[in-house]
Amino acid sequence: MKMEDNELRQAMAVLDTYTAQLEALNRQVRLLQISLEDTVRARDSFKTLANAEEGDEILIPVGASSFIPAKVTGKKKAIVGIGNRLSTEKDLDEAAEFMETGANEISKALKETMNTLGEIEKMAAELTVAIQNEYQNRQQSVQ
Question: Model pTM?
Answer without folding.
Answer: 0.84
